[in-house]
Amino acid sequence: MPDNYPRLPTGEQLQTYFENYAKAFGLMEIIHFGCTIKKLDQNDAQSWSLQYSQHNSNTVHEKNFDFIVVATGLYSNPYIPHLPHRKSFEGHVLHSSQYVSPNQVKGKNVVVVGFGKSALDIATNATHYANRVTLLFREAHWPVPVDLLNLIDVRRIFFNRLVGGLLPLYQRPQNWHKKLHRYCPWLVKGFWRFVEFLLKLQFPLKACGVVPAHHPKVISLTRIFSPGRKLTN
């Protein structure tokens, strides 16, 4: 990315970077935009026949491929579960993708359901404008700030091989990972206890009632609510 980009680029900056990358490597010429997939069949020879049309044309084109990758994403269609008595509820029910302005919550009592990145971002933003914000969740997770104690870039601490070795033994751990967990469990446990202490020191988790029940071995790289802002669980 360009050197003048901030550490957390905006959506517009990311889009510009992706477009410039695609143009620089000649990808734009092989990308077909504005297409609708009409049919996809697997042939006897394990190849694939794909039929598609342009949005502004009724002509159907067909091409053959050796492999097909479906990458439509998980969150394309907003999902709101069935809520009893929703029709009699006089307030507004919004999906996170529909929250586009603080004016939507200004001076109101707000309930944010969830504890993921979107839920925490919206709850954090809403506390500055809403009358009251309640965070409703099934299980709390450990947050990790952009700057630990507002001093140290969190990437300098967590994004390295040593700390990677202190994570739980996931798929295909190297021998030194196994030996570290086998012969130095006190080091692994002590490190995560120290991380837990720092996170509790930086965020008012206890005051907000959002101290996770598990140790922060599996962490969520998100920012949580601003210090001093209290949410009700």
What's the average pLDDT? 85
Helical segment count: 7
As for the number of domains, it is: 2
Briefly note the structural class of the backbone.
alpha+beta
How would the global form be characterised? extended
The overall strand count is 7
Helix content: 25-40%
Quickly list its features.
233 residues, three-stranded antiparallel sheet, two-stranded parallel ribbon, 7 helices, 7 strands
How would you describe this structure to a colleague?
The model is unreliable at 220-233 (pLDDT under 50). The two termini are 39 Å apart. The chain has a three-stranded antiparallel beta sheet, with no helix packed on it. The chain has a two-stranded parallel sheet with strand order 4-5. Strands 6-7 form a two-stranded antiparallel ribbon. The chain is built from seven helices and seven strands; from the N terminus they run αββββαβββααααα. It has two domains: 11-65, no CATH class; 94-233, no CATH class. The chain is of the alpha+beta class and 233 residues long.
Short summary:
By secondary structure, this protein is an alpha+beta fold. The protein has helices spanning 11-24, 117-126, 154-158, 161-166, 175-183, 185-202, 205-208; strands at residues 35-42, 48-54, 60-65, 109-113, 132-136, 147-148, 152-153.
